[in-house]
Design goal:
Nucleotidyltransferase, domain 5; Rossmann fold; disordered C terminus; five-stranded mixed beta sheet
Length: 422
Amino acid sequence: MSARIACVDIGSTYTKAALVDPATGELLATAQAPTTPDDVVRGVLAATAGFADAPVVACSSAGGGLRLAVVGYEELISAEAGHRAALSAGARVVHVAAGVLDAAALAELRAAEPDVVLLVGGTDGGEASVLRANATVLAGADRSVPVVLAGNASVRDEVAAVLRDGGLPVHEADNVLPDIGRLAPESARSAIRAVFLEHVIGGDRLSTDPRLRSWVRAVTPDAVLEGVTVLARVLAPDEVAVVVLDVGGATTDVYCVPDADAEQATLGREAVGIPARRRTVEGDLGVASSIGALRAAAAAEGLAVPGDAPLDLGEAAATIALRRHLRAEAGYGPGGASARSAGLVVLSGGVFRHADPATVDGVVGRLAADRGGAGSILAHSEVLVDRGYVLAATGLLAADHPEAAAGLARGLLAGAVTSRAG
């Protein structure tokens, strides 16, 4: 085992690196460099220049991450199940279609320009005609986009053959909705990750350097979600629900893990279970490349339009993202734990990491006072700032070095700057 590992997050604006002891999880050093969009490997090398020959493991959201479209049978059942599986895999869902794809629906799908299509539909042994029809439409389209097939297992071989005959790369997975009321996203998650590694990282969009594919293990939101889950498990004896708010240059993500070990909680709808680990990504809320869209979103929410100060932009992005996350949770229906039950909120992103504690306390106080929704999450929660940006690194280490991942999470709890919102 190497004495050190460089855990790298290739972001849309900056590439962040953490040097970690894989045996103990001790955070040895951190560094960052501007992301180099013409060839992201140069940014990685710059960020890790002081780490000698430590092996690199990485996640990436550069170039907008993985753009995914969901095509399903019926919006409130198959398409929604696929949508949730995609979100939990760290993909950015850019389009959801339900029912048989006609010419107009196919045009909308093309316009979304997905990197991958998640094709779902029907429970195992149930309705299969829509899945068959949509496979035929996709196979006959004039754009070759990879497909993750995660629908009715009874016709999987037949449908996969239709797609492959049309020249489409196909990754087969178990049905995301094998029975009514039971969501089973893990197989689809794995297939989505494989598509990301093969077609985005393994392609030439980010770099032609073969080292990139050997380094990158996940989409950044997927790695962070794993890191949040590790953090929740470290806190498990106290039964503390965890919410992480990550404000970036292009997007703002909200992660909620009310139960670290349950895949789904009590059913809120008869059709689709409530996922225990939840993430929402807001592609129009960023403090660098998305400033114009962020200001428009603030005005639409009835908030003061932020100026140019990074922390003002971050506060606006945080407020809107938390409000939207709660609105997304409301779509699950009653039942299950909510972000409102959070006992710990972690603030991540450069706008918080580089601000002094007193200034962050002021932002936390204003977020906690928000009556549009954000306040109900922060009002009675402990709030930490992830100064070392360790959650992505924690997630990258979780599979191969679980003790080190837990050590990083414990270090976050011990060393982060703390505020009290309530």
